[in-house]
Structure formats: C-alpha cells, structure tokens
Amino acid sequence: MNTTPDALVEIGHGTSWTPVCRYGDLTPGRGVAALVAGEQIALFRDRNGALYALANQDPVSGACVISRGITGSREGTPVVTSPMYKQTYDLRTGTCLDEDPDDGTAAALRTWPVRVRRAAPPHRARTLPEWRPEDPEFWAATGARTARRNLWLSVLTEHIGFSVWSMWSVLVLFLGPEYGIDPAGKFTLTAVPTALGALLRLPYTRAVARFGGRNWTVISGALLLLPTLLMAIVLRPGVSYTTLLLTASVAGVGGGNFASSMANINLFYPQHLKGRVLGINAGGGNLGVPAVQLAGLLVLATAGAGHPRLLPLCYLPLIALATALAARYMDNLPTRGERPHLREVTGEGHTWLLCLLYLGTFGSFIGFSFAFGQVLQVQFHDHFDTPVKVACLSFLGPLLGSLARPLGGAWADRVGGARVTARAFAAMAAATGLILAAAQLRWLPLYFTGFLALFVLSGIGNGSTYRMIPAVQRARTLAAVRAGADPHTTEAAERRRTNSLIGLAGAVGALGGVLINLAFRQSFLDTGDGTGAYAAFLALYLVCALLTVRVYGRRPV
C-alpha cells in the first residue's frame, strides 16, 4: 500500500466516517484501540500496510483486549490471536478460526469498514502547541525542520523590507537637475527613512509577542505595499521636496521588519546555533540593500534615469508573494506571556554597551549602504558623472557586507562574540584610516578598496555583536540558577530580556545609519569632502574596540 504517513485513517459507522489517527501513527504488526460511536474498536496495520478494524471485546472472555493481540497469518489469511484464551480470528471477516465456545455459538468479532484519506494541507494560521528547541530529541524529530521553514520565509520578507527601506539610496540617483535637489537634500532624503525605521524597531519587536511571529510577518509584509505604492505615484519632475520627504519617511516601515524578524527567529533556535542563524537571518535581510541597488542599475541601464517609478513597481508583486508565503507556511510560537519589556534591560550597563557596539557595526553598514553612491558621486565626480557609473559599483559594498554577516555569527559561535567584535572594530579603524588617506590623495582604487574592506568588516561585526546579546543574557541566567533561582522563571526572563535587547540594539544601530548620513552631509557642507566624517568614524571604532576588550575580554560571550 502506497500511503503517506500524514494520511488520515477513518473508521465507518453507518453513513459517516470518523477519523481516528494518521496512517504513520500505526506500527506494522501491532494494534491500537479507538472509540467510535461509543464502541471500542481494535485497529491493525499489517506488515504489508493493509488496515483492519474489529471489535476490541474478546467474545470468549468478555475483556477488551483484542487490540493487544498478536498478528500474523494462517495459510495466507491475516489473523490476530487474542491474548486471553488464544482464539485466532480472521482480520478480514472477524471469524474465529479455532474451536467454538462451550455453548455452541459461533465466536466472531464484528468488523468495521476502514479507509485512508489523503490529509488536507496543514493549516498554518495557528500557534504551535509546544516548542522546546533545547531538547535534542524534539529538535531532531520536528524542531529543526519547522525552524528552517520559518527562517527562510522570515529571511525573504526581511530581505524585501530592507530593499524598500533602502530604496531611496537608489532613487536619489534618478533625481537629476529637473528635481532641483542639491547633494545635502539628497543626504536628507536617505536619512529620513533610516530614522523612522530605527524608531519602528522598538514596537516591531514587541509585536512578535503580541500578535505572533507568523501573524506579524504577514502584517508587516503587507505594510510594505504602502511606501512602495507612494513612491510609484509621486516620483515625477515637479513634485515638491516636502512630498518627497514625507514619502521617504513612510519607507521606514521596511526598517522595522528587521527587529521583528530577529526577535522571532531567535526564539526558534537552540543557544548553540543562535550566532550562525541570527547571522543568516540578518545577512539575508541585509542582502536586500544590494539587491535593490542592482535592480536600480538595471532600470537605469535599460529605461534610463527618467523612469524612477519602475523600481518600486517591480517590488509590488514580490511583496505580495512574500506576504502570501508567510501566511501559508509560517508558524506562531507559544508566547507564554513572555512579551518583551524594555524596562527590564534599560537599567543595565551591558544593554547600552551592546547598543553602542551595534551602532558601530550595523550603523556603519546601513549608513554607508545608503550614502556610498552619493559619496562616490560627490567625492570623485570626475569618475562618476552619470548615475549608471555610480550604480555599477555602489552595490558591491552592501553585497559583501551582507554576505560577511553570517560568517561573523558563525565565527562568534566558535571563538566567542567579544573576541570577534573587538578584532572587527580594530580592523574597521585601520580601514577607515586607509580611506582617509586615499581621500586626501584622491586615489580612487585605494579609496574604493578601503570602503569594501569596511563593508566586509562591519558585516562580520554585525554578526558577532548580535551573537553577544543572547550570550550575555544566557551567562546571567546560568549564574542565577547556580545561585538557587528557579530555572523556568529565570529562563522566561532571559527570553524577554534577549528580545527586548535585540529590539533596542536594532533601533540604536539603525540610528547610527542616520548619524553617518548626517555626518557626511555636514562634512561636505563644511569642507566639500568627507574628511571630518572619516575622522569621527575612526575615533568611534577605536573606542568600541577598547571597550569590548575592557568589558568582555575575560567573559565567555
């Protein structure tokens, strides 16, 4: 019999059928008891896959024991032997194949029709009944598969969210003289969605516990349609700068997706996999930045700079597809009342230090991703006098930074997040010094190489810093348990604090992107180049490296 394990086994009584179990729940050669219409029925699956349903009550002894009988065959007939007085019955007809009872009546078991029906597709709009990722048996049996499915769908939605969030870093390349916007105004257009996205990360983190990870992924995915439609409507010569600013601000909803996605996926995985998995989740989302920049390059190269509305229009079907897939296949986890509360972490020194470290890593990545094209166009205008020339190179940095983030998380899993983060900041300081020197010499190859290195190192630092968040909270939990605290209560508090800190660090980190755009804007206004901004970045990276070594150098985080 070629039947899938998920197929439903049903027993007929009268004109109706009662589902009793799934086909895969039945062990070949053994029986189970089921209650159908008030009667006990013994259900068997033989070693060939055939199913039989008979009365569970032994007609000789009167005991309901047939489901515990021994199955086999007699002269080709499938049979079951009662465990009481050893009478053998034909599984197909219920007829007793041994002697009759003393009163001369024929011993027989009543039979019921049984069928297998293909299972309906599982309904995904539901909360999983339990979730125990730290239980190895549970993880191997069902946990890993379920977590992977939710991870990849979360990555897809977050990826598109990043594309919508960073779309203005590409659209400003389309805004030629006919729009009447100077370079400072363009830096502001990219800073506005960054700022709103940073602020939205706090409520988005709480939304996972409030609505469920799957439900909020669907809601936040559908919200991406709003800024995308607005961009497709208003982008045309003659539009006011105020309208563009308001439209750009709405794109900030794409930045919130990161926080809710990370908070959700963090709960799906066991501790020893969090660094790699959070790196994959964040890196896959970060890839939305170079993806939209490549899409912008394609529009520029084919339709020209006069058609910016084509870019957001391309994303409308992708948003609809990602939202539909999340609704169909993602799961909600049991929240157990563990909604994140910022007040649990805002009073801790580790909270603000980790936020500073993430501001230095992710803030650098997202800030440079938004500003890199404009910086190239202003700093080396002789080389990048057309939007196409800028777009041909500006996507490389965000691409390499996104790909490096999972590597940073995996490296942190092996050697510790603090060690990787400290090394990343030291190397970022060196790369910034290289950029500063190249900018003074106006040496484009060295400048571009330094920026690519900075993107890669910020990606590595992103992964390792985020790995430090659950590691710091886990160390606190273990210390409390050793001191006599209740493990269940302490672990619940750990999950709340971790998700709260993920949201807060994500918000502060995104604000770093705003600061970088504002630093570039002010530096170019004051001196005509980015020297002042690079000097500030260099100082920040050195401070972060020293603080990481000083505070976490001897801690296993």
Describe the protein:
Keywords: 2Fe-2S, Iron, Iron-sulfur, Membrane, Metal-binding, Nitrate assimilation, Oxidoreductase, Transmembrane, Transmembrane helix. This is Nitrite reductase small subunit NirD. Belongs to the major facilitator superfamily. Nitrate/nitrite porter (TC 2.A.1.8) family. InterPro entries: MFS, MFS_trans_sf, NO3_transporter, Rieske-like_NirD, Rieske_2Fe-2S, Rieske_2Fe-2S_sf. It is found in: Membrane. The protein is an alpha+beta fold. About 60% of the residues lie in helices and about 10% in strands. The protein is built from 17 helices and ten strands. The chain has helices spanning about 135-165, 170-175, 185-210, 215-225, 225-235, 240-250, 255-270, 275-285, 290-300, 310-330, 350-380, 385-395, 395-415, 415-440, 445-480, 485-525, 530-550; strands at about 10-15, 15-20, 30-35, 40-45, 50-55, 70-75, 75-80, 90, 110, 115. The strands form three sheets. Strands 3-4-5-9 form a four-stranded antiparallel β-sheet, with no helix packed on it. It has a three-stranded antiparallel β-sheet with strand order 2-1-10, with no helix packed on it. A three-stranded antiparallel β-sheet has the order 6-7-8, with no helix packed on it. Strand 7 (about 75-80) and strand 8 form a beta hairpin. Helix 3 (about 185-210) packs parallel to helix 7 (about 255-270) and helix 5 (about 225-235) packs antiparallel against helix 10 (about 310-330). The longest helix has about 40 residues, at about 485-525. It is elongated, with a radius of gyration of 31 Å. The two termini are about 55 Å apart.
